[in-house]
Amino acid sequence: MSVLTRKLWRTIGSTRGQFLAVAAVIAVGITVYIGMSTAYYNLNRSQAVFYEENNFADYYFQVVRAPQQVTRQVEAVPGVVKATGRIQKDVPILKEDHQRATARLISYPLPMDNEVNRLHVETGRLFEKYPQGGGIEVLVDPQYFDANLLSFNDKISIVAEGKQVFLTVTGTATSPETIITMKDAGTMMPDPNTFGVVMMPHNQADQILGLNGQINQVVITCAPGADEKVVAKQVKDILEPYGNLASYPRKDQLSHAILQVEIDQLRTTARFMPAIFLGIAAAIQFVMLGRMIKAQRLQIGVMKAIGYTSGQIMLHYTGYALAVALVGALLGALFGLGLASVMSSAYAYFFNLPETISGVNLTAISYGIFLSVVISFIAGLSAARGVVNVKPAESMRPEPPRGTGRIFLEKWVWLWQRLDPAWKMSLRTINRKRGRFGVTLLGVVFAVGLLVMSLFMNDAIDYMIKKHFYEEQHYDLLIRFSGPVKGYELDNITRLEGVVKTEPLFEIPVKIYLNGRSEDDLLLGVPPGMTLKKLVGSDEKPVALPEDGVLINERTAKRLGLRPGDRVEVETLLGLGPARWTSLTVAGVNRQLVGSGSYISLDLANRVMQESGVVSGAMLKVDPGKAGRVEQVLSDMTGVSSISSQRKELDNLNKNMGSMVYSISIMIAFAALLGFAIVYNASVISFAERRRELATLRVVGFTNSEVSSLLLKENLLQSLLGVALGLPFGRFLSECYIKGVSTDLYTIPIVIYPQTYLFSALGGVLFIMAAHFLAARGIQRTDLIEVLKNSD
Amino acid sequence: MKKNVLMKLDRITRTYQMGEVAVKALKETSLDIWEGELLVILGPSGSGKSTLLNIIGGMDSPSSGEMFFGTENLTRAKDQQLTRYRREEVGFVFQLYNLIPDLTAGENVELAAGLVENPLSVSEVLKEVGLESRMDHFPSQLSGGEQQRVAIARAAVKRPRLLLCDEPTGALDQTIGRTVLGLLDRINREQGSTVVIVTHNTPISAMAHRVIRMSSGSIAEIIENKNPLPAERIEW
Q1: What is the mean pLDDT of chain A?
Q2: How many CA atoms lie within 13 A of A62 on its CB side?
Q3: Nearest to B59 among A298, A305, A309 (CB)
Q4: Do A3 and B86 count as a contact with CB atoms less than 8 A apart?
Q5: Is the pLDDT of residue A82 over 90?
Q6: What confidence score (pLDDT) does residue B2 get?
Q7: Domain B5-95+160-233 coded CATH 3.40.50.300
Q8: What is the ipTM of this complex?
Q9: CA-wise closest residue to A349 among A144, A145, A141, A179
Q10: Contact B114 A3 (CB under 8 A)
């Protein structure tokens, strides 16, 4: 080992405190990066593998009824790998508590072999074609199973073709199309109490549904590289005679579409958060390594005097930086993998994926290590270069003080004269050592900013819920009818005991077109003078419902670049009857934090559908004491297809936010850790740099606590300034983050409550104080003579 | 003694910019340094003697004037050339020893030995300065005098033609200081290195072949000493 290598090892040993502190900052950055990106990678892989293993369909075709043999014809189409014919039908479930629920029956041919959309049995066993004891065996989706407290061999009763049928539950199962179980896009969120997927053998399904030997759905997988549109066209031609109702590609399959949105949202978090952490770690690494190397200027001068070249010296100190990076990166990789495995299983749970793939994302690891090594290399090199370029004679003298030592405050004589000497000293020191002050300041700014960003999500969600559920939405129940009904039929509901007020609603799913681009949206026809729902504009001020034209929702407006006065083409997507085309004028923009929809008047909705006096649902205000009773009565009404209560929606929203809240709480922990590491680092370096100065003060006769309070004054100033800059920085980070994570389901507002600012500010001050306390302990331990004797 | 000129300084100046004021640390100074001589540069603090030494050692560059080492022109030498010059020709001894704290006595010497082609043996040199038994001690475990002897060993191990010492006894008491001076004297006599000692301590000049007296940034006088005293007999 060369002398320089030995020196490198010893320097690492003698500066181990700082070495580990900088390594810790790097490690936190790398941990978050590897942890989050690996978790995202695993989730993605889990999804892909699950789809692959269970032959997830590439295209769906819905027909009225067709003979089973038609699937062979479909399979013969070039580009189709496999076609499976089956029955899918929604039927009512009769629950013991009289609650209304819907079962989506899906039939499966047995044996299942390599059929499209195969089942994955999670618990219990697969149903049998002809069970020994007779009856009909089914599997249900795990969410329904859990929510309804079912056990194996329980019976559920459904109504099929007007008859009550009992089904025996043999276990739970999922498939790629039932990961997220939602009835339709209108329900907004899964509610396993009112909707479940029931899977059964085909031979039983066609019996109870009166479809003997027939199917009503064909699902296909396409060959890689096949043009799906061309394939779909040919299949549709084959199915035309059987009443081809609808066909859609995988991307429009509800479960997949929602899962994809959530996974995409996670990707934003998985990219954004680590970028912030890595960026901050890099900046800190840069600054700290720079200062540590500058502290060695005397040694560098000696080495130059002896005859070492600048290159050799730079290499030596870069070696130090590289060692820090390697230790940090390795620790980070280790913890990152641990974090990844915890997060991967948490995500699989949140997203209802049956299996977690706990892979090791080598790309993330090598990127992480590469990144930190490169940053350290540059940081080490640039810091060493700055020192090495100085003439050796100069670098062997202590760095000359800059400026006169007077500061701008001294111009305000009145104020300056009232400051005690200790304050004057602190202020002048800060002015003289701006670099050092800057490092600590930067640390506090980052720490406070990270805290704000991590905490603000809670505020935003809270605000969103308050605003949406308590201020803008005044109804308690929202009911939908099985089909459009005449408006006066609502009177029957209004007359129910406990119903305070009823207001009609006409929902029309549509595609909105502008200049060749299109967006899916939901038109909501509501009566003028509506009171159970408040419409607000982008500025959160109430907006009135236009008599004519559409109050378009903010997101659609943004995506299509719509402005008031624009004319858009609207195509209705209501499953019943032919699509209607209308053109509407954009009258204004409305903002809705949860859910989305564009508002028109009830009359206009009827005109769009070429109807008159028709509604599809209603908003109900209910006497709080009688809500349960009203819900029960409504459940028994045959024409009512769904009832959603504000309370249930709220519960669901909270559940849906689970994965995000989970990521956020992990981030808070890391933000606090990183924040403290930064501030602590800065303090340690600052203390190391002024050991002589502090020891001199002690020798002059200052007590430990006097010296300590001198430091405290500087630290206080740093905290105050750091907090003042960190709070807006945190808001800025939050804004960047939000841009990435808003979805169709909800728009997260940038709302930061004063408590969050206060808490973050306190956090920043707390970090400073803790770091100060640790540094102050160092003063007491200092051997004065030792410090003053040593020249470096 | 044959007077071969080892180093020639011709009207050298050095100006430092201190904020808005330009400080002339060295006014036009010319000096020839002879091969094999022991030169003492004497003067109070601020007289420019350290600046002169730093320029001679290639640690600093003159603001104007010309300087030659043998036939090599160092006046406008680039960093690379100066580094090579320091590495191959110059040994430095500082007032505060400036040993690398993370390296042992032996390693500090080795640090320098590794830079040249034909160094003396590290253990031999340490033996010469009487520290062979302390080879594995760190600077913090050595006394001031011992540290300075390690520093001399570190400078001598390269067999420099020019050994430059900046207040080598400034931080030491008289007895130990004499030992250190004795070492420098021996290196001058036995290895034939040219030794330049900067000091404010007048009695030390008694051991020199020539004494240069500096005041306010220029050479006040050059005194030739026909009978240099051995270091052991110097008193202060």
Answers
A1: 83
A2: 10
A3: A305
A4: no
A5: yes
A6: 57
A7: yes
A8: 0.83
A9: A179
A10: yes
